[in-house]
Specification:
This protein is an all-alpha fold and 276 residues long. The protein contains 11 helices and 2 strands; from the N terminus they run ααααβαβαααααα. Helix 1 packs antiparallel against helix 4 and helix 4 packs across helix 5.
Amino acid sequence: MVVALLDIFLTVLYARAGVAVFSPLVSRAIWHVFRLVSRPFRRNRGFVLSFCGPVILVALIFVWAAGLALGSALIMHPHLGSGIRASQGSTPRDFMSALYAASSSLSFVGASDFKPQSGAFQALYMFNSLVGMSVISLVLTYIMQIYNALKSRNSLGLAIQTLSDNTGDAAELIAGLGPHGQFDSGFSNLSSLASNTSEVKESHHFYPLLFYFRFAEPYYAVSHTATVLFDSVSLLKSALSDEDYGWLKESATVAQCWQAAMLLVGMLDEVFLNGH
C-alpha cells in the first residue's frame, strides 16, 4: 500500500518527470509491447500506436487500485474470522475473500459482507475508505489535466502546421510570418509560438505520460514541433541580414523559441527515449 500510495503521490501530486516509483516502468513496458504488436500492421502501424497512451493511463489506474487492494488484503487475510468476520454465516478464510474485503473497504467494490470486529480494524476500514475516495478524486483530476495538456500540445502543433500553409516547412513559416520582409505583424505570432512551446514543455515535465500519446497526423508530434522551431530559428539567424533584421534575430522571442524547443527535446530524450 505504501509503494502504491507513494507512486500516486509522486505521479499525480509531486508531478515531476523521473521521480515516480513504478509508473515509468509500466509506461515503457506497454509502449514496447505496442511497438512489437504494431509491426505487422505496416501502413496502419501509426493507428495501432495511437491507442498506447490511453491504454497506459488505464493500466496505471488499474495497477494503483490493484496495489492498494493487494496491500490491504495482505493485512486482512491473517485476521479473517477473528478481527474481521462475515456479516452472516461462517467467515471464509481464503485470500480471495480477503481481497474482496479489502477492495470493499477501499470503496472499489461497494457494500461489504465483511465487518471489522475490533477498534484496530475499524480504524483500518476508515483509513481505507479515506484512501479510496482520495485516490478516486486524484485520478479523475489527473485524467482531466492530462487531456487538457494534450489539447494544448495539439493546438501548438496545429498552429505551426497552419502558419506554414499546411506544409510543416520552416521556410514557409518564416515567409508567412514576414511577408515581403515585414515581420511587425508576424512577430506577435512568433511570440505566441514561443510562449506555447514553453507551456507544452512544462506540461510534459509535469505529466511525462503525455509523450506516449500519439496521433496519426505527424504535425501533432513533439519531435515535429521541435524540428520546425529549430529550423525556423536557424533560418532567422542565418538568412536575414543583421542590418535590417538585427532586432528580430537578437530578440528574446527568438531565443525563447530555441531554448523552449531544446528543453522539450531534452525532456523527450530523458523520458521517452530513456537517454538513448
